[in-house]
Design goal:
Pantoate--beta-alanine Ligase, Chain: A,domain 2; 4 helices; 148 residues; 3 strands; alpha+beta
C-alpha cells in the first residue's frame, strides 16, 4: 500500500511538472509558423502578380500585330491591356503603366512593356515579416512587326 501511494504521488508530481510544456512549445513554434504562413501568402500573391503581368503583356503584344500603323498598334495593345485589367482580380484598372513602341535593340520588333508597383497589392503588412524582392516589376514582350 505504501508503494502504491509513492507511485501515485510520483505520477501527480510528474503531471504537475509537465502541465506547461504544451504552452511553452506553442509559444516557441508559433512565431515560426506565422512567419512561414506570411511568406507563403506574400510570395504567392507576388508571383501570381508577376505571372498575370506577363500574361497581359503577351496578350497585348499579340493584339498589336493586327495594327497597320504604329498608332493603331498602340491603340490595340492599350485596349487589350485595359480589357484584361477590367476582368482581372489582381490589378485594378489604371494601376499598370503601359509603354508600346519599337524595341530599341531591333527596329523590326515591336515591344509592349507593362510596369506595376507591387505595393498596390496590399502586401505592406506582410512585408514587415517577409521582404518582397522588388517593389517595381515590369514585363516586356516583343513581337515581329507586321503590316505592309
Amino acid at each position: 500500500m505504501l508503494r502504491a501511494d509513492r507511485r501515485l504521488s510520483r505520477q501527480i508530481v510528474r503531471a504537475h511538472c509537465c502541465r506547461g510544456t504544451a504552452a511553452v512549445e506553442f509559444a516557441l513554434i508559433m512565431p515560426v509558423l506565422v512567419a512561414l504562413i506570411a511568406a507563403i501568402l506574400t510570395f504567392g500573391l507576388y508571383l501570381g502578380a508577376l505571372h498575370t503581368l506577363r500574361q497581359i503583356a503577351g496578350e497585348a503584344a499579340r493584339a498589336s500585330i493586327a495594327g497597320i500603323t504604329d498608332q493603331e498598334r498602340r491603340d490595340l495593345a492599350r485596349e487589350r491591356v485595359n480589357t484584361a485589367l477590367a476582368h482581372g482580380a489582381i490589378f485594378a484598372p489604371g494601376s499598370v503603366d503601359v509603354t508600346v513602341g519599337f524595341d530599341t535593340a531591333d527596329p523590326s520588333l515591336y515591344a509592349v512593356t507593362l510596369r506595376f508597383d507591387t505595393r498596390r497589392l496590399g502586401l505592406t503588412g506582410l512585408a514587415r515579416i517577409v521582404s518582397i524582392p522588388q517593389n517595381l516589376v515590369s514585363s516586356t514582350v516583343t513581337v515581329r512587326r507586321g503590316g505592309l
